[in-house]
Amino acid sequence: MPEDVMVPAGDYKLVKQIRRNQETRRKKDLPWSKRIFDIDEHKLFGRTALGWMRITGFYLVLYALIVCIVAFWLGIFMLAIMDPNKPRWLKGPPGLSMVPNQNRSVLSYFTHIMSEVNPIADRIDDFLNKLNDNAIDFFADFNQDTTWGYATEKPTVFIKLNKVIGYVPETYDTADDLPKEAPESLHDTVGKLGNSPKIWITCEVTNGPKPEMVFYPGPYFEASENMKGVTRVVAIQMNKMPENAKTFFCCKVWARNIPIDDDYQGMGLIKFALSMRTDDDGQPDFELPSTRKAPSAMVTELVPVPPAPPRPEGMLGGLEMPPSPENEKDAIENDAKKEEMTEPPSL
After folding, report:
1. What mean pLDDT value characterizes the chain?
2. Contacts of 49 (CB under 8 A, 6+ apart)
3. What CATH topology corresponds to 96-277?
């Protein structure tokens, strides 16, 4: 047909029909129930069972390869690069702790009440047994009464230098090496005992009466790269401990690579307090028998037997009380029989 004969009928637009677009529009027009589970096409969330198997297998293989690659390089790093004889994670300097520690500001106890003394001694025994170094025998001189002096007014505390793997102590070997804040008593101690590397310890009373402190094996920790067992523990026995008073202590350790922080407990120092209370009323202490062996200096006191109550004879001047009748009726009949009189004879 010639072009001049064609007459346009109006505005129109030619739309190209694409099968993919039609499929997309069809899926958009589906209801939500069909999108989740289409029973006609056997699809769950738009995927068939075979489709779900393929995508699951793909991600399993992907993550398995990632794990294998990470494990390979981690094994090379751990076995070939790091020294097995050295710690993998280096920590800071070791801290301090005190035994027995009741998590209280003041360790208060009565010397004559074994129910208070025995738990303290048991905590010390448990602590020393965990050292696995015959620690109880090593410190036996401070345990003559089997209660570590808490029943005989000579309490013993243990200062422990916590274990840090890989820590190498840097010690003060001469008195001239000590810092300015070191006490004068430490200068004398280092001058006498500074023949081998040691981590020094000093203890002073910050408040309260001052007892005599005896250190064992001495006011120091034997310094080495492999500090373990009793080498990390110093025992301090308090002789002439003040009675019925609170005594506050502060112990510090001295080494070049152990900083002392007065604001934090255990950072180069440890603070604790003791209150030894005694029996001043003169009354005997009635305690149940203890499983721990009693100290030799203590004497077992018997509970006095109360006197028997007085008998009624003693209360009535020795006169015996007549037996009480069984009931009131019997008593009346007995009285009537006693008062019964016979008639006089007739004249």
Report:
1. 77
2. 42
3. Immunoglobulin-like (2.60.40)
In the chain, the amino acid numbered 114 is: M
Sequence length of the chain is: 347
- Residue 57: both structure tokens together: 């297998």
| Residue 13, token pair as written in the block | 């637009």
Q: Would the CA dihedral through 188, 189, 195, 198 be positive or negative? A: negative
CA 215 vs CA 49, 122, 221, 230: distances in Å: 78, 21, 11, 13
Answer yes or no: are the C-beta atoms of 219 and 245 closer than 8 Å: no
Q: Which of 185, 116, 103 is nearest to 147 (CA)?
A: 116
**N-terminal to C-terminal alpha carbon distance within the chain:** 190
Q: Please compute Rg for the chain using Cα positions.
A: 46
Q: Say what the pTM is.
A: 0.59
pLDDT digits (tens, 9 = 90+) for 48-63: 888 889 899 999 999 9
Q: Residues of the chain with pLDDT > 90: what percent? A: 42
Sign of CA dihedral 185, 188, 192, 198: positive
Residue 252: count of CB within 10 angstroms of its CB: 21
> What is the distance between the alpha carbons of residues 238 and 210, in angstroms, rounded to a whole number?
9
User: Which DSSP letter does residue 290 get?
Assistant: P
